[in-house]
């Protein structure tokens, strides 16, 4: 027995965590409602001006309009397609390079500092250089999204494999496993949770860099919608695009968290985790 | 069952300092009522050292928690000097199983932290901290940080912290449970000496029967499901003095026999608080 | 975004060896050879000498030093504003359950907006010049700081909370002796990530907002004028600044938390 003294409050808390109490929902929704109310009221009195903050009903009308003429779906799908392709291109090399660096400490000792130095320069700085090599078309989007995906995946994969407890590795040696057995029965399962986290980070990074690259150069997609709205001083377009971006971000995050818990039910995730 | 046999060599005034009447306590776990303490009656006199022994997770620690005033949700009475316990107070202090020192404070700072609510002058605080570090033999470590102490040393600091306010009650929740066997034996003797010297009334929870017999004037044997007092035995002075005496062995075997009855019946939740 | 930069202990040891220098050396030699023997079109891969020459002219007669200092100024100003706001709000959320219940969900929802999606809105609200850029940098620095501070205070071990109850700490003592030092590692993580995001935003703001002096703007210019030597120089400088930020944040953190580890 370590300490039953503190055993009980967490148990209670865990209970309330499972099913949100209605008061929590009421509290949580009070601020957005208050903001919305203030926004609606102030726009009714013409402050701030329409170009600075369009009224909520204007934003709503824009959503309805963009939805009914299909352009919102079109832009969103285009953005999602880019993320999917870029992510799909970025993950395999990320996993392979990461696994190689993780499994081969000697290679890692040579390469790792170079890699961190490269990773240090974020995608944005490469963008002007990249433009010269691949132009500003779809290739630019795929390459930069793949790049942003690969880096966190490599980092997480290398670490997850390199950090596998030496005790477990020792166990593999005691049991006289072949190198292949060692990797498949000990290293991979032990590294799996952090590997998954790496993929989640990679997807988040892909989504972030999609917005960057679409703002930088594009003729369709959510980033383009925002740039266009800004140039026309139609902030309702900007706000609609932000809402869609937030909604997709939320969805991606939530589904991956769910998947993560599904894959490893023993791990309790804190609800506010990244 | 719950008769009290005053120890023949027990010389202090027989005013009960702590009285517990008909104490019932239950938790709600996953919507189900779980009774952890049932009909506990106990009275402890000033200057007495009472040990509580029982299988793991059977309400011993909960009992301490209630005496501390950390949890007020119970039925029955807990009286300290005839007053109901309503909140934690400096007249009752505790040593947890994990030393629970604050890692960012020095040994000195940790002991002094317990004096935040004391009305002593700055100089007097300093002096009493010094005295208590001397009492546990750690004067030369007063500037060290907890990370640099061994488990036994850290637990001594925790004991000094618990005593620095000169509490009337010292509650000990398996204070030596996490230590190795040799350190544990050494600290048992020291604990006995310190408590005797300070004249504090002490209540120690343990699952080490030897420890319970060696330290206590009386030993409370608890049984699980729900936690209740099986019997209370007085420990003759001879048994306390000499671990190899016939009395010691007889008493230990008796307690072990009593515990075996309920052994294995209690596997309620246990949490490790690191 | 490559916000995560503190190498874990297992990998850090490698950096002390001679091996990484070999790798850097080999890359440099390859670069030198490629330029020397014209393996690659020099328009796409300028020689080290060309980059060095560009650096010399830029720093003696050009404006690059001024550009860098302007970028850093905006970066530090924006980060200071964002981090301070994040720290304060994070502490309020960590200490007050009511504030957490009211503001927390909204904050988490806002966090789902990809960082750069703020650019168009902020540029309209604050203009595309200095104010808009600094506002964006502040938003970038704010997010990780507020979340980590909040979670740091909230995630304090219940054992320490119980201890504070037993020692009858006042709220102030609890904050000063227990909660703040306990949350410190998490707060640092937030500040570190905030610093990296703010640096990213500094570059981004120069790419996406009005042209003002700054290193990001110069990079863009180099790209449009096809000045590869300038681009290479810029990227090297950015890597150095990034490394400097990371390592100084890391060593500050290690120094401040030195007592907690054996």
From TrEMBL, chain B:
It comes from the Bacteria. Residues 18-251 form the ABC transporter domain. It holds the Pfam family ABC_tran. One of its GO terms (molecular function) is ATP hydrolysis activity. Gene3D superfamilies: P-loop containing nucleotide triphosphate hydrolases. Keywords: ATP-binding, Nucleotide-binding, Transport. Belongs to the ABC transporter superfamily. This is ABC transporter ATP-binding protein. It comes from Phyllobacterium sophorae. The lineage of its organism: Bacteria, Pseudomonadati, Pseudomonadota, Alphaproteobacteria, Hyphomicrobiales.
Automatic annotation (TrEMBL), chain C:
The chain crosses the membrane at residues 21-39, 76-96, 108-128, 134-153, 174-200, 230-252. It is found in: Cell membrane. Keywords: Cell membrane, Membrane, Transmembrane, Transmembrane helix, Transport. The keyword Kinase does not apply. Gene3D superfamilies: MetI-like. It comes from the Bacteria. Its main location: membrane. One of its GO terms (cellular component) is plasma membrane. This is Taurine ABC transporter permease. It comes from Phyllobacterium sophorae.
């Amino acid at each position: 027995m370590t300490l039953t003294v503190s055993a009980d409050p967490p148990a209670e808390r865990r209970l309330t965590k499972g099913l949100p109490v209605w008061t929590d929902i009421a509290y949580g929704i009070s601020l957005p409602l208050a903001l919305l109310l203030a926004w609606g009221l102030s726009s009714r009195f013409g402050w701030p001006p329409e170009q600075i903050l369009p009224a909520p009903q204007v934003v709503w009308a824009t959503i309805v309009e963009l939805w009914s003429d299909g352009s919102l779906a079109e832009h969103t799908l285009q953005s999602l397609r880019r993320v999917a392709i870029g992510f799909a291109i970025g993950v395999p090399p990320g996993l392979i390079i990461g696994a190689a660096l993780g499994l081969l400490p000697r290679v890692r000792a040579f390469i790792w500092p170079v890699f961190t130095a490269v990773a240090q320069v974020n995608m944005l700085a490469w963008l002007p250089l990249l433009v010269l090599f691949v132009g500003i078309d779809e290739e630019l989007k795929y390459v930069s999204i793949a790049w942003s995906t690969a880096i966190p995946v490599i980092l997480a994969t290398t670490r997850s494999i390199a950090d596998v407890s030496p005790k477990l590795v020792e166990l593999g040696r005691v049991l006289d496993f072949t190198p292949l057995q060692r990797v498949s029965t000990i290293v991979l399962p032990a590294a799996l949770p952090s590997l998954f986290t790496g993929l989640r980070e990679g997807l988040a990074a892909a989504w972030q860099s999609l917005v960057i690259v679409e703002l930088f150069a594009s003729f369709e997609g959510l980033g383009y919608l925002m740039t266009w709205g800004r140039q026309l001083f139609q902030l309702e377009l900007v706000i609609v695009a932000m809402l869609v971006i937030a909604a997709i971000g939320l969805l991606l995050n939530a589904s991956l968290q769910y998947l993560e818990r599904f894959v490893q039910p023993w791990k309790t995730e804190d609800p506010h985790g990244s | 069952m719950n008769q009290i046999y005053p120890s023949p060599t027990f010389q202090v005034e027989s005013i009960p300092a702590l009285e517990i009447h008909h104490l019932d306590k239950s938790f709600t776990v996953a919507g189900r009522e779980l009774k952890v303490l049932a009909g506990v009656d106990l009275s402890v006199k000033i200057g007495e050292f009472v040990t509580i022994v029982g299988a793991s997770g059977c309400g011993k620690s909960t009992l301490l928690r209630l005496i501390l005033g950390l949890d007020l949700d119970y039925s029955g009475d807990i009286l300290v000097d005839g007053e109901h316990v309503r909140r934690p107070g400096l007249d009752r202090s505790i040593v947890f199983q994990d030393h629970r020192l604050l890692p960012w404070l020095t040994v000195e700072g940790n002991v002094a932290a317990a004096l935040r609510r004391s009305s002593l002058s700055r100089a007097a605080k300093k002096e009493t901290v010094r005295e208590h570090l001397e009492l546990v033999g750690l004067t030369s470590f007063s500037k060290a940080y907890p990370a640099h102490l061994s488990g036994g040393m850290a637990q001594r600091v925790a004991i000094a912290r618990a005593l620095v306010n000169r509490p009337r009650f010292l509650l000990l929740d398996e204070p030596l449970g996490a230590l190795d066997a040799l350190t544990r034996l050494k600290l048992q003797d020291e604990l006995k000496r310190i408590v005797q010297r300070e004249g504090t009334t002490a209540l120690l929870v343990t699952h080490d029967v030897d420890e319970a017999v060696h330290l206590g004037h009386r030993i409370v044997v608890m049984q699980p499901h729900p936690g209740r007092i099986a019997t209370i035995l007085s420990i003759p002075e001879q048994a306390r003095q000499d671990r190899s005496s016939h009395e010691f062995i007889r008493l230990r075997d008796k307690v072990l026999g009593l515990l075996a009855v309920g052994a294995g019946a209690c596997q309620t939740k246990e949490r490790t608080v690191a | 975004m490559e916000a995560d930069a503190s190498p874990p202990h297992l990998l850090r040891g490698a950096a002390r060896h001679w091996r990484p220098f070999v790798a850097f050396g080999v890359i440099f030699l390859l670069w030198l050879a490629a330029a020397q023997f014209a393996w690659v079109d020099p328009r796409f891969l300028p020689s080290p000498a060309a980059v060095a020459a560009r650096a010399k002219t830029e720093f003696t007669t050009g404006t690059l030093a001024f550009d860098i200092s302007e970028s850093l100024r905006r970066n530090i100003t924006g980060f200071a504003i964002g981090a301070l706001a994040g720290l304060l709000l994070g502490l309020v959320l960590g200490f007050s359950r009511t504030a957490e219940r009211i503001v927390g969900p909204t904050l988490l929802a806002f966090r789902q907006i990809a960082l750069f999606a703020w650019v168009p809105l902020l540029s309209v609200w604050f203009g595309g010049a200095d104010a808009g850029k600094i506002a964006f940098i502040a938003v970038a620095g704010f997010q990780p700081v507020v979340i980590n501070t909040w979670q740091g205070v909230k995630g304090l071990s219940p054992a320490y909370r119980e201890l504070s109850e037993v020692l009858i700490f006042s709220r102030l003592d609890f904050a000063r002796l227990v909660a703040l030092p306990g949350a410190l590692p998490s707060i640092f993580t937030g500040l570190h990530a905030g610093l990296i995001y703010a640096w990213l935003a500094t570059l981004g703001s120069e790419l996406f907002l009005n042209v003002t002096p700054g290193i990001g703007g110069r990079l863009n210019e180099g790209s449009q004028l096809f000045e590869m030597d300038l681009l290479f120089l810029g990227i090297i400088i950015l890597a150095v600044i990034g490394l400097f930020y990371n390592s100084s944040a890391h060593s500050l953190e290690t120094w401040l938390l030195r007592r907690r580890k054996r």
